[in-house]
Amino acid sequence: MTMFQSFLNRGDGPEIRRVRHELVRRCLEVLAVERLTPHMIRVTLGGPELAGFTSSSPDDHIKIFVPGLDGAPTRRDYTPRRYDPQNGTLLLDFVNHHGGPAAAWARAAKPGDRLEIGGPRGSQIISGPIDHWLLIGDETALPAIGRRVEELPAQTPVTTLVAVPGPEDEQVFATSTHHVAHWVHRSMDQADEATAILAVLKTLEIPDRTFVWVGAEARVTKAVRQHLLDERRIPAQWIKASGYWVKGQADASVKHVGDER
Q1: What is the DSSP string of 55-106?
Q2: What domains sit in the chain, N to C, each tagged with a CATH number?
Q3: What average pLDDT does the segment 184-213 reach?
C-alpha cells in the first residue's frame, strides 16, 4: 500500500461541494473584442445587468444565447474566463472554429453589440488536502484552466497539459502559483485523438495528493481518465473529468466522464 492509498483510506480525500445559484438571465453589452490567438477570441462584456453576477468555481458554465446558423435562436455553454466586480466586466473566450454559431457570433462581435447570458446555475467547488494540481485539456478548456491557474493560492504547485493547434495558440497566465506548462500541438481535425496528450502525460510525474482535472473532447477525456486510473493508479476521487464536447454532435457534452469500459 502506498502512502497515497493509506492517506485516502483515512477518509481525508478531496471533496467536491456543489453550490446552487439563483438563475438569472442578463442582457450585456460588448465592451471590447480581442483576437487573443489565431484560434481564440476574447470578448469583454459589461453593463448594469452584470451586477450581482456570481461564479464560484473556475469551471463554471453559463448559457449564452446567439443566432444559430439558420438564424433561429440557439444557446451554448461557456466558461466565465474572468469576472471583475469592481470594473463591472466579464470575459468570455471563444474558440475560433468554423461551423459553430457562437464562434460566428464572436467573429462578428463589435463594441455596442448585445449578448444575453444565463447562469451559472451552480458551482462545483473542489477542496481538501490537495498539494498539487494537474490540469489537462484542449482549447475548449483553456478558459477554465487559465482561470484556475490564476485563482489558485500563491505558491501552489500546478501543472498544465493542453493541446492546441500550434505554438501561436499557446497562452501565458498571470499567476503567483508554481506553474509548469506543457503544450501539445495538433490540428483541430485531430482534436478527438488522445495520442499526443497521452504521450506527454506518460512522462509526467504525478506526486501524491495531486488532484487531476480533465476537460476535452469526450473520447479524449475518457482515454486520459482510463490512463490515470489503470496505468498511474490515481484513485477516482482525485480525478474530475468532463467531456466538454463530442465530435460530430452539436451542443453535446459529457459532464461527468465515468469509468466506462
Answers
A1: --STT--EEEEEE-TTSSEEEEEE-EEEEETTTTEEEEEEE--TT-HHHHHH
A2: 3-12+124-245 (3.40.50.80), 22-120 (2.40.30.10)
A3: 96
Q: Taking the CA atoms of 160, 106, 42 and 166 in sequence, report the sign of the dihedral they define.
A: positive
Residue 110 burial (CB count, 10 A): 9
Kindly state the cell numbers that stand for 63.
448559457
Phi and psi for 99 in degrees, rounded to 5?
A: 95, -5
Residue 259 confidence (pLDDT): 43
Query: Full-prediction pTM beyond 0.90?
Result: yes
C-beta separation of 147 from 81 below 8 A? yes
Give the whole-angstrom CA distance, residue 2 versus residue 123: 32
Q: Would you call 228 helix, strand, or coil by DSSP?
A: helix
Residues for the chain: how many in total? 261
Where does residue 218 rank: exposed (0-12), middle (13-18), buried (19+ CB within 10 A)? Answer: buried
Name the DSSP class of 41. E
Residue 220 burial (C-beta neighbours within 10 Å; 0-12, 13-18, 19+): buried
**β-bridge partners, 75:** 65
Confidence class for position 7, pLDDT limits 50, 70, 90:
very low
3-class SS at 48?
helix
